[in-house]
Amino acid sequence: MALIQYLTHIQIDFGAAALLPQECERVGMRRPLVISDAGVRAAGVLAKALAGWGETPPPVFDQTPSNPTEAAVRQAVELFRQQGCDGLVAIGGGSSMDLAKGVAIAATHEGPLKTYATIEGGSPRISKAVAPVIAVPTTAGTGSEVARGAIIIVDDGRKLGFHSWELMPKAAICDPELTMGLPPLLTAATGMDAIAHCLETFMSAAVNPPADGIALDGLARGWAHIERATRDGREDREARWQMMSCSMQGAMAFQKGLGCVHSLSHALGGADPRLHHGTLNAVFLPAVIRFNAQAESMRRDRRLARIAHAMGLAGCDEAGNEVAEAIKAMNARLGLPSGLAAMGVTPALFDKVIAGAMADHCHKTNPRLATREDYRAMLEASM
Hints:
47% of the residues lie in helices and 9% in strands. The chain is an alpha/beta fold. The chain starts with 8 loop residues before the first strand and ends with a helix. Residues 13-176 form the Alcohol dehydrogenase iron-type/glycerol dehydrogenase GldA domain.
């Protein structure tokens, strides 16, 4: 049976960050803890997002690591309790939003965080007691502001997913103004993350027609505007708005399920936390698209042809070569790495990555179930 559920209260436009105090009031937050990172603070984006609070801004935890960890969750929980907070406002990229969701669980539930991980059967253990979250993205990529999940590296080193409708942010404040100063390479990497969400969601064989429509529209917006946002992101407001929408739409859609791109990215990102998630997605997409092209659902529903149309390509063969090559060419134009080797990845990591990918929560929603040998071939093709 297919579950189709859209719940988040979304504000999207330039200047939307000014609505943050009233959104906190609307959901009943009187003393939120702000979760952010040092880079967002140093760039002045945190101050801009909190400008509406006047002279008494809420307490801030700004030590979110690039890949959120259970140790960072514990630090933030300690501050949450010290300050008597009753909710969380995440201001930053996907890492800050995921960390906030981890804090929402850990501050209100007993036991180690892995107890609540999806692959540990923990989703039903996440109760309505979770602290409410409001999300204010400062990048256009992860879409975590409208998603029910978070990815966190737990104490045993695994990069695990946590999923529950109780984790859905009570409000998403999508202000493209907060992304205008994002550096070109980070714009490109986070933008390809959003595009990967749209592509993988649409390829998944799970049933969710609204998600398919949202994903295709998001793909068209992102593909048409990512180069403009990367090249002239400080001036091109239209491109920034469209990329913010692409990001939001990709995450609204991926409740349907993702696939091998994210299984591999999660596993490799856990093995080497220095690697950027969006960049990994961009690198893995071509090999996974070629692998997925043989799936029965892809051919039956003409999904490759519909993807190619959304990307403005002239056509697409049944092997997915045109789409795969278009993505490789886009990565090159954006200045992203040509492959895993350029990112410092060696085959020595393959066995660990394959084991992680096979256990990842995205593995089973790929349109074609991958074997260990399939994952090895995709890794080799992505080098």
